[in-house]
Amino acid sequence: MPTLKGRDYIETQDLTADEIRFLLDVAVDLKAKFHRGEPTPLLPNQTAFLLFFDKSTRTRNAFEAGATQLGAHAHFLDSNVTQISHGETGKDTGMILGSMGHAIAIRHDLILDEGNRFMRDVAAATDVPVINMQCDVDHPTQTLADLMTIREVFGDDLRGRKIAVTWAYSPSYAKPLSVPQGLITLMTRFGMNVSLAHPPEYRLMDRCMKSARENASSAGTRFDVVDSMEAAFEGADIVYPKSWGPYDLMLQRQGARTPEAMHGIEEQCLALNARYKSWICDEDKMKLAKHQAVYMHCLPADRGAEVTDAVLDGPQSVVFQEAENRLHTAKAIMASTMRERPFSSQ
Ligand code: CP
What is the whole-number distance in angstroms between the Cα of residue 56 and the centre of ligand 1? Predict the structure, then answer.
């Protein structure tokens, strides 16, 4: 049985398939115990720091409630009110927080080529596990919950199942690329044929596309890129349409440090999104997928833009099961990676 004690959880690519299966087994066990009302105090007196550079509902609460259920404490930190906002580095932050607690979980997802790098700087400076609560590259706590949900619906043997990962229209904000990137890299490893679709301006990071192609080749699965939601949905078992920002504009955020500059880029992103309002998941498009196909979304979803209410609230939607699984997978990751600090008299 693999041990992940002391290990970071930054990208699913960093773990073997057996290590991911181990986390899923732990999550299934913790979920069953939660529903039986059985306590799971696996991490008494431990502290997980939760450092957020972006907003969250599911992830923050999965980790806070999850830590409580494990007998630990999750300590919320808004990066804007830490010294990071005055320029303190990831290295120094990692050394300080790592000396005071047992894990550092981070969400830093808004700027391409920054979040993942920051997490790896933190991880290099501390022995406690660093957990990625979403970066520019991956959202590995989300995709673990997604895989858990897919296994609950279709069983553990997913060979030959097709998942459609597609862009969808959003008028609300330019969303990170990390969910589709995490899905194409993880699901290709677990038997699924992945069909990716997006308008031309919404390409994903080259390194993630490369990983998805290599994973599919190693696992004997397919990774196809098509040019419409309809083509991706055709014959799918799972559809996962969601919005993300246009690549070149998201890249420009790197140089935009003032609120005005960020606002200008955001306006351009939303104007581009608005050209593709037909990329909505509705009941007609769901008919292109298999009769028993499920609709998934990491949430929050833009109702009436990414997806109609009829689909989101309909019989094929598993989004709330998927959201609950965020709790159990967060607990599995914390319980498996955090460890007692060795007692020292110094
Ligand atoms: N899916 C997800 O990560 O949700 P939050 O942004 O609310 O954490």
Answer: 5
